[in-house]
């Protein structure tokens, strides 16, 4: 069953009582919340995610709710994220609860799922070959991901690349794409059919708006993919488009810098990163225009090297 | 008294993994994670050959926490090896305590256990030299204000924790196992003279003193967020005492160190939650030697039963907060004489600036 098969009232009552059970990538979450923004966010942006009301094993039970019992809470209400009886982050203003939910879900996975080497990276796939783009915030990674996805690439994740330590396969973690500040309007102009959630303003990252992933990507949540290439994107306004091959040694170091749990995994992390990189190509991509960037990526995707 | 948790039964093999339903595993994993014993659960289920009977998605969480344990073990082994080598040059041989001791020694009951600090015991007369030496190796002191310095150095059983500037590892350096101001007066020199050489070549407390230390830590403390894991340790340590003579020796050591009461509580609660095998007559012998009355004892049992649980909402019963508060007061009362305690709490409440 999909979220869109449920009546709004059923979603609300699940969120308010035992929790809404929802599959995101290889994990089942149970989400509890009394906040209307969270309800709306899940209904609009997780339409094709699997849901289930039968008792089952839940990987992560989480809660996003108004923080209780503080004087400040009456004057300026805040939402807090709870996992396992703990509140791992500072509460945020109530209207940022969708962003808090998304960050919380990412945190659950990046802090606990050590069956994967986890990279801070976007992952898209076409023709059975996955493209992984590790990069820091501000590199244009999410914007480029949204643009690729608008052209029919499958979205696996815009934030976390889950590389299976045993097989080297990358697993989907398909969630709404989080766009920030100027890139929100860029994508609204670029992709006219894009569905956006409510914007959260004044977050630590500025304005954040979430973009609904294509239904076709979400329904393939159980299909892992083989990594064909790493691309390190760099957006610079007005930059001429260029794509150049990156030495494996240097690519390796950038991958390690963008990994959440490389040191924790020790030798296994080393083996996994080397295996995946040895079976793929690595490129630097600098771009000032989305169409140029997509043309360059499509070129290598159609070429013989991959 | 409530019956043991499903998690506890799984930890000690009273319940087989095959008899736990997938949806019941949600709570088991969550409780185990909150109590930091998920890695231990993983190792015990594998050792009993029950791992393969579990749903694959549950296995992933167990294995993931085993990876975390492997990182702790790797780091602790490396850190301890270099520390001991550095101290050895000055002819100081530290005794390893608690988590780091169990893990570096590869005690089977503690496989999968994680811990935040490395605890060492050194003779009080060597403390200054140890601090000086550690400074040269990149370890920096914390709690720099005068009050905290005095609190640790005059009243406590350890100096302020030292942190490595690059690796951020935290070392707790103790010279005995209870505050100098505490009601009970363990004899520090005895701890050193009966310390043993572990298989890994490091100095460890004797088996009996390890029980004493774990028991003292849990049953005179004022914070209970690690209580459940501490009781898992105690159960593991007590299961190593096989012969009746071992239990007699435990009694003698507890008496010598003036720690009969915490050890009595340790045995009682380990048996209640983990069905630790205890020879007949042992509890009665400890019980008879205690000076506290039956009424107070029953009350303390009820309070401890409430707080020795994984710190997860599903395990906290009503009355938890009150029990925790009362034991907090008891913990402080046991640590300091009344006058000093009032001074200390007054300082912390009104005079101390917020410091890291």
From TrEMBL, chain A:
<protein>
    <submittedName>
        <fullName>HprK-related kinase A</fullName>
    </submittedName>
</protein>
<dbReference type="InterPro" id="IPR027600">
    <property type="entry name" value="HprK-rel_A"/>
</dbReference>
<keyword id="KW-0418">Kinase</keyword>
<dbReference type="GO" id="GO:0016301">
    <property type="term" value="F:kinase activity"/>
</dbReference>
<dbReference type="InterPro" id="IPR027417">
    <property type="entry name" value="P-loop_NTPase"/>
</dbReference>
<keyword id="KW-0808">Transferase</keyword>
TrEMBL record, chain B:
<protein>
    <recommendedName>
        <fullName>Nucleotidyltransferase family protein</fullName>
    </recommendedName>
</protein>
<dbReference type="Pfam" id="PF14907">
    <property type="entry name" value="NTP_transf_5"/>
</dbReference>
<dbReference type="InterPro" id="IPR039498">
    <property type="entry name" value="NTP_transf_5"/>
</dbReference>
